[in-house]
Every structure is written in C-alpha cells, then in structure tokens.
Specification:
With 280 residues, the chain is of the alpha+beta class. The strands form two sheets. The protein has a seven-stranded antiparallel beta sheet. Helix 4 (144-161) packs antiparallel against helix 5 (245-258). 28% of the residues lie in helices and 23% in strands. The protein has five helices and eleven strands; from the N terminus they run ββββααααββββββαβ.
C-alpha cells in the first residue's frame, strides 16, 4: 500500500550507469524525456501542456487495470490543476490572487491554497536566511521562485489521487519523479553541467525526488539579491535536488542569489543537496 510520504532521494553508485541510457535529461540545450517501452501490464502516456508562463511534460507509467479511460481522466485532472494555478496565482495576471494580494484587496487567509503558498514562501525565507524572499521582489509579493514547483507537486497529487503512482513531470530544467519508469526500473536522470556541456552528466537513479534549477538559461538579472535589490551575479546556475520540487526550486533560487555562502544550508541531515553551484 502506497502513501503520500516523500522518502529521501536515493544516491546510487554512479559506475552502474556507464552503459545505461537515461530516461530524462536536464541542463542540456533540450531538456527531454527518453523513456524506454512500457513493461508488461503497464500503460505509458506522454503529454505536453503549455500555459502562459511554462511548458510541462507529463510521463505516466500507469497500471493496466486503471484502463485507458482512467489514465486519461488522471491526466486531464493533472493538466487542469496546472492550468488553474497559472490562471489563479500567476503574478503577471492582473486579476490573479497573487496580484490582488499585492494590491491589498484580499488577505492570505482568504483562500486556503493561497495561504499555503504564502506560508511556504515564509518558511523558505527563514530556511535560507532571507536569501529567498518573495516579499523583496520589485512590485511586491512574488512567489515565482517556487510557484512552478508548487504547481507540479499539486498536479502530481492529482495523479496519485487517481491511482497513478509512477510518473515524471518535467518543466524547463526542473523535474519531479515518483515510482518506476516505464521500463520497470528506477528513473535514470542525466543532469548536465550548466556551463560545460562537454562534460559527462551527473547520473541519478531516482524513485522519489525532485531537481530544481535556477539560472540554467544563462539569463542574467532574473533573480534579485533580496538584501540589496540588485540583480544576483554570483553564480551562472544553481541546481538542488530533494524530496519536494517547490522547496528544491526555492533553494536553487536562494543559492543562485547567495552564491557559495548558501552551501551551508545543505550540510548535516538536510534532505536537500546542491548538485551544481557554478561561479560566474
């Protein structure tokens, strides 16, 4: 029997992957999925959806007993969640709840999901010593540093509620995976170096976990130093992995802003780990 608890990411012996093709690639010019054929008794479905702010690719490895109709309904509910979050919380939409909150028209407690989003931002501000600060963004409160990850996790919860416990969701250089890949084994994720594409990628074997990245496009000025208000310029990119994509995304944004100082957040018993923190 499965639960919704998020176990820690598994870190395997990298030598085992020398001759094994990855299922997913991150950090290369084309973030892509390359899953093998579905195992017997499974239904594999891949679907891409675009919203106003992001593109998401969902790969479902569903049990055959769920049927194609059940798989289609699970996919429909998950995609609807992604679209609803874009419409309801997008900070660039004048009538979104985030925009209304910034204008003082509503309070965070007006809508439970909005309160959850604000609470997550406050928790990450504390966890990163203020380097992730959704209130220090020009124009007021902006949860963009973790909004896409939060959307993916909520969409993934819809999949689990519908009976799909094996899946991957990819958006840009971020992803979340759960359970098994279509070939029946753990998801094999190739994470390419953000500035040295000629280097061999870091290979991860994952059955539950997320990878969040900030700055992988090389675009400068998209993350602001919350202490000075100036564009962050310490790193070219920062990549963080751990159980929850919203948190990994927020850590990656904070690490990008803080630079090497932020590496202290991942010491000790932290469930999150910095994969790349490359200096500019």
């Amino acid at each position: 029997m499965r639960t919704d608890e998020q176990p820690r990411t598994r870190w395997p012996d990298l030598s085992a992957f020398r001759s094994r093709r990855p299922d997913l690639r991150l950090g290369s010019r084309r973030h892509r999925m390359e899953p093998g054929p579905a195992a017997e008794g499974r239904i594999a479905v891949q679907h891409t959806v675009r919203t106003a702010t992001a593109e998401y690719t969902l790969l479902l490895n569903a049990p055959e007993w769920l049927g194609r109709r059940g798989v289609g309904e699970a996919l429909r509910d998950s995609v609807a969640e992604l679209r609803a979050i874009d419409l309801t919380y997008g900070p660039n939409r004048p009538e979104s709840l985030v925009s209304r909150l910034r204008r003082g028209e509503i309070s965070p407690d007006s809508y439970p999901p909005l309160a959850e989003l604000v609470d997550r931002c406050a928790a990450m501000r504390a966890a990163t010593d203020g380097w992730f600060d959704a209130w220090a963004v020009p124009g007021g409160f902006d949860p963009g540093g973790l909004l896409n990850g939060w959307a993916v996790e909520r969409a993934a919860a819809r999949l689990r509620a519908a009976g799909v416990h094996d899946y991957a969701v990819l958006t840009g250089a971020d992803l979340v995976v759960r359970g098994r890949a279509p070939h029946g084994g753990p998801w094999r994720v190739a994470v390419h170096h953000p500035t040295a594409p000629e280097r061999a990628p870091l290979m991860l074997e994952m059955t539950d976990g997320a990878v969040g990245t900030s700055g992988v496009t090389g675009r400068q000025g998209h993350v602001v130093d919350p202490h000075t208000g100036d564009p962050a310029d310490h790193l070219v990119a920062a990549t963080v992995t751990g159980p929850d994509l919203a948190i990994a995304d927020a850590y990656a944004t904070a690490l990008y802003a803080a630079g090497p100082t932020g590496l202290q957040w991942f010491r000790g018993s932290s469930d999150y780990r910095a994969l790349f923190a490359h200096r500019r």
